[in-house]
Amino acid sequence: MELILWVVCFLIILALVASTFYQIVILTDLESDYINIYDTASRINRIIVPEFAVQGVLCAFFLVTWHWLMFLITVPLTCYNVMLFWKRQHLFDVTEAFRFLNAEKKLRFVKLGFYLVVFAIITFRLVLSAFIFLSDADDAMHLF
Amino acid sequence: MGTENPGRQQFPARPAATPFAAAPPQNMMPFSSSGPVVGSEASGFRPTPPAAPQPTVPSSMPVLGSEASGFRSLPPARFNDPSVPSPPTSNVPPPVGPFQRFPTPPFPSTAQAPLSRAPPMGQPLSQPPMGQPLAQPPAPPVSFRPQPQMPPVPMGSPPQSVNYASPNVNFPYPASDSTFPAPRPNFQPSFPGYVQMQSNADSPAPPIQSTFPAQQGGYAPPPVSSSSPFLAHQGGYFPPPPVAAPMGMQSQMQHLGSGPPIGSIQGLIEDFSSLSIGSVPGSIDPGIDPKALPRPLEGDVERKLFAEMYPLNCDPRYLRLTTSAIPNSQSLASRWHLPLGAVVCPLAEAPDGEEVPVVNFASSGIIRCRRCRTYVNPFVTFTDAGRKWRCNICSLLNDVPGEYFAHLDATGRRIDLDQRPELTKGSVEFVAPTEYMMRPPMPPVYFFLIDVSVSAVRSGMIESSLTQPQMMVVSDLDDIFVPLPDDLLVNLSESKSVVETFLDSLPSMFQDNLNVESAFGPALKAAYMVMVCMLTETLPIDKLYLEPTWGEMLIFQNTLPSLGVGRLKLRGDDLRVYGTDKEHILRLPEDPFYKQMAAELTKVQIAVNVYAFSDKYTDIASLGTLAKYTGGQVYYYPSFQSATHGDKLRKELTRDLTRETAWEAVMRIRCGKGVRFTSYHGNFMLRSTDLMALPAVDCDKAYAAQLSLEETLLTTQTVYFQVALLTCSKVVDVPVTINRYTASCGERRIRVHTAAAPVVADLGEMYRQADSGAIVSLFSRLAIEKTLSHKLEEARNSLQLRIVKALKEYRNLYAVQHRLGGRMIYPESLMFLPLYGLALCRSTPLRGGYADAPLDERCSAGYTMMALPVKKLLKLLYPSLIRLDEHLLKGSDLVDNFKNLEKRLPLAAENLDSRGLYLYDDGFRFIIWFGRVLSPDVAMNLLGADFAAELSKVNLYEHDNEMSRKLMRILEKFRENDQSYYQLCHLVRQGEQPREGFLLLSNLVEDQMGGANGYVDWILQIHRQVQQNP
Q: Looking at the domain that runs over B879-1004, which CATH code has it been given?
């Protein structure tokens, strides 16, 4: 059971890391003029809402499975996302893109760092539970 | 080079007097003694061989001869410098040679008055008989004093003659000569050094020696190697040492000094201006004479000096730098507390005879730098017998295409220079060749979006609208059905009558309309779709989507959009919000829909002009966003009534549709290495880090940008700026490479403005070269932007703080050596800055709080001021106040009369005489103020039967009498001078409250009003803050 949970979490966090990384790459491209601003905005804005949703799901997942620690780690970001969404500030603003480019990048770097920490924890728990699962299986084998 | 600030301070301490004391005898010294010294002084010249011909010095005649033969010297006549009619003659008579021009007399006091070190500087100017101003750049000293660059070495020891000799050697004339030997008509005789310097800055610098035959005396100028243009250049900047002196000098002392020649006085006056503030503690009297305060009553006077120094620069009406002296280091830039940047008005209206020349490179293609894409301009230099040219911005050596090739003459300039406006004019327009075009130019599409809700009908707004093709009724708000564009958009010339009939029928169609709702958002979307379809239909099928096209959408909105997508709430003017952290949100667009729409419209090159009419809250903050990001404009007619405002709307709409407009434009400002434009302010959208997308741009719009230094220390001596107004051929994922702009006539052109500015190491110099108009323009944009994220008060405070910091920094420059006491000092160039700062704080977008201006007016004024060119902004900030009654009563001729009329009065109520009739003109409206005891005849003549009525309901029109006709002629004349907006007349009688208050009295910026400072208080406040220790 535990193992399945962690595998799912692992996949989710992997997706989040990838999405954030992708956004950073796009912003960097924009900065160095490899991509135009309209494409930047449409590409980023396309994945922002799914990212928020997935992040929310991850958070909810921890809550319903009583992983308090993980829930408390992820909930601040969820709240932040919800706040942005309510204020309708979650989307990348095409018109003022260059004024806020650095802030947007910084935000995403911080997010990336956060996701990586969560990723590390989840990986650890995944390995741990896999180990436990396997050793349990071993034990079970031995019991026979 | 490296010693910037310390260097400056050393100067006062330098024993500068010594050389002078010794001078008289040494004047006669042969060159041989001074030669080496000169070399050392001209630090820029590396080799500086002490040069052979020295022995010839005692008599200059031989020198001339030898020079003429030995060097590729130019005939002196080439510089049509009147003061150097014939060098030989000036040189010959006195056996002393070149030095003769500084006979002892000018230094009578050298011994006793060390201060008069300054003199030599100005002398050539002030003493024409001396005759060789060429060698001595008289002006530069005043304006350029990069003292740090002066090696202190020569100062102490060298014989005085060095000072004189040095200019000769220092000046990079050789190079410059070679580049531009011919006298440019615009060369200013008094600033030869500069002229040359700038032209030569980019000179290919083949080792060209010689030059001023006369002046060079016996010197063989050091060969200037190709890498040295800058060094030579730097030489050009060198003020002859004496110049440096006034810098650190005590002005008072100077005045007392033993009659220093004019030049030095000039220098002093330019040093700073001061205002004595002698407040007696405890007394109520502020100690300022209000009459002595500086006021820009002459309007915005352009500073000619700089234009003369760089005659090849584009006219300041196109590009104005906040300071014409670029700091050479980041630390220096950080001490300049004012904004560092430029205000660009690429399509400014040029007076007749000064139109921008059009250049057509038919076959060779437009000449641009391979690397940085800079367009060819007067500052590029040709080398290698004309086969190569060096880019002045990135200094890459480019090949000259075969068709463009021209031989260089002996001095290194192209022989075809006269036929090449792009090499002689700072502003040119290139015709884009066919390969720059994606498709043939199309006529622009105008789309009118008219609000027909009940309030619009009632106010008569519809009646006064002008032209409109067809009507589309958007019935289903969620799923917009777009009819075929062919049915909807018509060719104006073909179907003029249809349009007119439609327009006539429009009011009657909707006269029974009781619908109070406005479905603005859906209509906007539909209009957008129609325009895009229309545009794509004319294209081949494979380019159907998102092909850039151009057009203009004019939105006439009378009520708050209340239905469908983009509906807005009545959020405006909530008193409680003011003063809280949420205050600024009122000034931001409420719904992101508007920003997204604006981005979409910009993408397809449609500009939006918003005409808003409502007397109720219409949320201009949101609607204006459409104009802001599409390069459009907001026109706001509060409480529109067609009877009174009809004229204004008609004139402004006509202007909007008929002024010269460039469609589908993009603009980029390139600048030399080491500096970079980091932020842009105005009505446009940034498409990449430095590319402004302007679906429409015209003469009434200006854009501002701020500079920052990328390198800690700039090594170049000159920074070049090039504004290119162009359009991108296609928006794809590659950096834009092809650019053009489409003038209304349908031809694609690229307009290029180029300017150069010197790099300096001295803060004082930066302040001296400041341009307060450009600074105020940038300040206003920054402050308005700040109101979008902060409280009004914070925006005002930060503005004030920056002014205080700047003045404090400036004061610190002089405080050490001067006993400034209670005086407030400021550079002459920034004389009006405090006043404009005050006016800005009291302008509509920034003034007061809730009650001082309705939110819509605030926002629309903000959007307008973000786009205003410098001159118009200054006029709006400090409008003119003119007394009319005397002119009306006098029977004099109008022409003379009009000259007198330019006499502006300070904007204070004390200048309003109740017996007078005054005109207040801020460029957007006229306010005519009738004094209480104005003679009844005048009022009767001007107003006819209405003269006793309430003036708010009275329109001014021409009556059948001389006085009324005269007034109308005067007003017409003023309108002609400033056509961007139609100045509607508002009449107000003295004591007629509250109209007098908000129309006029609150705009008299020098008076205290409510919580706002008057001029005197403001100055005192600033002065106090300047004096406070940090």
A: 3.40.20.10
